[in-house]
Amino acid sequence: MYKIRPVEHKDCLDIFNLSNDPAVRKISLSDKEINYSDHLKWFEKVLADRNILFYAITIDEKLAAQVRFKLMENIAEISISVSETFRGAGYSRTIMEDAIILLKENTAVKTIRAVVRKSNSRSINYFYKCGYTLKFEQKLNDIDCLILEYKIRG
Ligand SMILES: CC(C)(COP(=O)(O)OP(=O)(O)OC[C@H]1O[C@@H](n2cnc3c(N)ncnc32)[C@H](O)[C@@H]1OP(=O)(O)O)[C@@H](O)C(=O)NCCC(=O)NCCS
């Protein structure tokens, strides 16, 4: 069964494994492998941060994806990753729709922003399919990135 819910402390290891997935590291803006003690510190900080909404998507109780929104005034920056087992299976658009419903319910944010490596064509296609539009290009950590946005309210 498919479920979306806020991330809890018990998800720490599953989120670690998802974040360290080679495909996820490769497209991330920092591609170094993460060690568990750094992850633990980061995880606790993110859970305590009131400007971050962090959701887990589970399928039959297994972590299938994570979605994080970092709130900055009227903009929420999104980070999304689907675990390898569930990638390419067509869940990703439902996940986006459900995460947006939760973002709308819990904040007054107007726009979602995605920062994606220019070389990450799979993810760029995905955001276009979800209705995002290209706003500008930017070099971040010396990496060419695209900035895409999606308006959730006027
Ligand atoms: C980006 C991501 C969330 C998409 O989820 P997914 O399960 O792979 O995507 P789906 O199979 O549901 O496909 C959704 C759309 O993505 C695009 N897509 C999927 N696989 C693709 C591929 N191999 N090549 C190019 N585009 C692809 C297509 O546009 C597809 O729509 P379509 O099926 O109507 O053609 C997932 O691949 C992922 O977690 N990637 C690693 C992390 C990441 O890149 N996150 C985004 C940066 S924040």
Structure overview:
This protein has 154 residues and is of the alpha+beta class. The chain has a single domain (2-151), classed as Aminopeptidase, CATH 3.40.630. It has five helices and seven strands, in the order E-H-H-H-E-E-E-H-E-H-E-E. It has helices at 12-19, 22-27, 36-48, 92-106, 121-129; strands spanning 2-6, 52-59, 62-72, 75-82, 111-117, 133-140, 143-151. A seven-stranded mixed β-sheet has the order 1-2-3-4-5-7-6, sandwiched between helices. Strand 6 and strand 7 form a beta hairpin. The radius of gyration is 15 Å and the shape is globular. The chain starts with a strand and ends with a strand. The mean pLDDT is 94. The structure holds coenzyme A. Coenzyme A is lined by residues 23-24, 27, 79-82, 87-88, 90-93, 114, 116, 120-123, 125-126, 129.
